[in-house]
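Chapter review. Work through the record for small monomeric GTPase before attempting the end-of-chapter questions.
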Amino acid sequence: MQTVEGAIEASIAQSAIIEKQGQKRIFKIIVIGDSNVGKTCLTFRFCSGKFPDKTEATIGVDFREKVVKVENETLKLQLWDTAGQERFRKSMIPHYYRNVHAVVFVYDVTKTSSFDNLTHWISECNQHKLGEGIPRILVGNKCDDQRNAVVPTNTAQRFADNHNMPLFETSAKDDSESDHVEAIFMTLAHKLRSSRPMMPPTSNRNSLNMSRNNSQSDQNLRCCF
Ligand SMILES: Nc1nc2c(ncn2[C@@H]2O[C@H](COP(=O)(O)OP(=O)(O)OP(=O)(O)O)[C@@H](O)[C@H]2O)c(=O)[nH]1
Ligand SMILES: [Mg+2]
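Structure tokens for small monomeric GTPase:
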């Protein structure tokens, strides 16, 4: 397995080429929330257009990338699919929040505790002093499971309003919601396009160990530690 350091160096080198050629700006988007809310499935749906056949708890972080076009500009969205389980994320937390350009908070509409815990996720985010202008959005996932839905939309909307975030309720699983998942991330891409330039300084990018995970697609990178 290639070391994380080797992979990040390759990634930095590649980014430098991109920067030199002036082809694309790169945006780092972190996806956070309780374990099992569907962060991996949502990012997989957006990047691959499918619901994954099976998922396991994320360890550390999985990287997914998608190149999108926004008003004639080609952007690269680098999604950091973080681990919800404390034991799988603890040592990674500083890496998650370094040079972040946008944050996606996810809860499960069928699990009240995942909604209640949003205050914890927001406070962790605030502790890392992200800039004021960093876009944040709230996503309620698993809307296909209406029978078990327990978080009312109006409660979630009030919470989102209080935290100055737009709320989206969707489903990573339901194929008919695929366009909606795409639209959610594209909304973010539009916001990011009009914000600051997006090349993380290399000095902050060299302490992570990454290796390419060939098991899913070559758009995916996994971080080991
Ligand atoms: N019904 C339904 N199930 C979903 C949906 N999205 C994910 N799931 C299921 O929820 C479980 C957890 O999904 P993951 O995407 O692995 O959850 P996660 O948030 O990445 O979890 P961690 O990696 O542990 O933080 C899996 O069994 C998925 O099949 C959805 O939209 N609807
Ligand atoms: Mg996951």
